[in-house]
Amino acid sequence: MRIAIIGAVAAGTSAAAKARRNNEDAEIVIYDRDSFISYSGCGMPYYIGDEIESADELTPRDPAFFKSKYNVDVLILHEVLAINPENHTLEIKNLSTQEVFTDNYDKLVIATGATAFIPKIKGADKNHVFSLRNIIDMNRIKTYINNSQIKSAVIVGTGFIGLEVCENLKKLGIHITLVEMLDQVTPGLDPDMAVYVEDELVKQGVDVYTGLSANEITDTSVILSNGKELEADFVLLSTGVRPNTELAVKAGVELGITKAIKVDERMRTNIENIYSCGDCTEQFSVVTGKAIYRPLGSTANKMGRIAGDSLTGGDLTFRGVLGTGIFKIFDRTVAQTGLSEKEAKAEGYDVVVCHNIKPNKPEYMGGKEMVIKGIADKDTGYLLGVQIVGFEGVDKRIDVFVTAITFKAKVEDFFHLDLAYAPPFSTTKDPVMYTGMILDNAINKGRKLITPDDLDALIKSGKKYTLIDARVNAQYEKDHVETAKSLPHSSLRDSLEELDEDTIAITYCNKGVTGNAAQNILLNHGFKEVYNLSGGHKQFNKTPKNNKSKGKDL
């Protein structure tokens, strides 16, 4: 059996390695039009920022490695021009010699990856304008930075790569301006969590413009859609990627609804003996079962392994993804998994949302607050998604949530997790457990939550309600939600006669715990409809419309 693979980065090389483990006799050849293979693309921003000293650390494997370890032939600078499924042949061009030749295959894997999307901006082809997708891009950027006196950079787009490059360029002493056409940074997060990221950027001296697009790039500036001109010696277009599917489409391979290659759970395309994996390929959501496109290195490796197993007779199947992501931005760590609140509502779920603000470990051990947003389905109690912004320990918590969602844990299950505890690592009840407890109380115990956005809507609706600030008077006097009355938790029982138990009541404190205690008092004294403000006064002030430290938007 002859196995041909197009693409030699994460998915293609994983497919080859697994195929070889399963079948020692197969001939395996990989073609790649690039000169670098099997590289660590996620490390590229850190090489640009001098955190990684040598580019060789990101490219530890070359064709000789795969030949010696796996007996796989990797031909770099070889572009596959066409696939002929009827004859099981490939038309290939040697980019070094310009020779065009034909090869045959019994099984074919398409792992052609994705390409940076370059929006139609006047001046996007200038020499100081870059995208970052591969090692060649990285080296071009690094060379330009080393050879130029860069004082200012504009980054268009605020996804993972854009923000990671932002941090690393800032560490080099370059002034950074971020431009995002949406009304918030980090499009994958909900607005009430993205605001924490924007605040960190502003704190670190980064200029942030949201709700605006780049209209033109000149030799020294970027001109925005509102006419604002930003100084720029360097421009990075970090506006997403598009799957490389042209070769597959010409061969008759079917695309999915996301415009990436459609495959089944065995990575098989609609054409017999042709498989696909990695960033050119569509995935599906563990939560909804629907097709999604989430190009990540971890997913590409997984899909490649399954493809290599499948084409050699194995039984591995793809079980979907949650779209889990994590990145560092200066002092903060940001992570997400599953559905956002916006996505969950669009899918028709009756969602319950909580904002859990807790330290990752006791403050006497140096603990710092993390904000965990949990999104759950009111009807089933299943957790649908989680977003976290914090410092240490975010990675640990998001991975617990990923595992729980994958294996369909309900919110009431989280309290019973036997998580590791010692003061240097966690609080006695871990923030993961607290998140489950808050959502369980809301869904199953009658302790309803109201989000800051819903509270804003209630205030503006004209409906009758009582808003109770359960903090001490000094905190109330310093700052409070408009229309709230000060009824501290310690004396609330003495003030119950002042309240109408048939009127909607909303309690709040700094972060939610004392507000919940006040909520319990009201419910236990016969009040009919009582809500606790999710995340308390702190989260209320962090919602975009109330946030006082927001960047330079419209």
Describe the structure in your own words.
The protein is an alpha/beta fold and 554 residues long. Helices cover 27% and strands 25% of the residues. The chain is built from 15 helices and 30 strands. Strands 3-2-1-7-18 form a five-stranded parallel sheet. The chain has a five-stranded parallel sheet with strand order 9-16-10-11-12, covered by helices on one side. β11, α6 and β12 (207-210) form a beta-alpha-beta unit. α1 packs parallel to α8 (297-310). The longest helix has 14 residues, at 297-310. The radius of gyration is 27 Å and the shape is globular. The mean pLDDT is 95.
Topology:
Layout: E1 2-6, H1 10-22, E2 27-31, H2 44-48, H3 63-70, E3 73-75, E4 78-84, E5 89-94, E6 100-104, E7 107-110, E8 114-116, E9 129-130, H4 135-147, E10 152-156, H5 160-171, E11 175-180, H6 191-203, E12 207-210, E13 214-217, E14 221-224, E15 229-231, E16 234-237, E17 241-243, H7 246-250, E18 274-276, E19 283-284, E20 291-292, H8 297-310, E21 325-329, E22 332-338, H9 341-346, E23 351-359, E24 369-377, E25 383-390, H10 394-406, H11 431-444, E26 448-450, H12 452-461, E27 465-469, H13 473-478, E28 485-486, E29 504-508, H14 513-524, E30 530-533, H15 536-542
Parallel strand pairs: 1-2, 1-7, 2-3, 7-18, 9-16, 10-11, 10-16, 11-12, 26-30, 27-28, 27-29, 29-30
Antiparallel strand pairs: 4-5, 5-6, 8-17, 13-14, 14-15, 19-20, 21-22, 22-25, 23-24, 24-25
Helix pairs in contact: 1-8
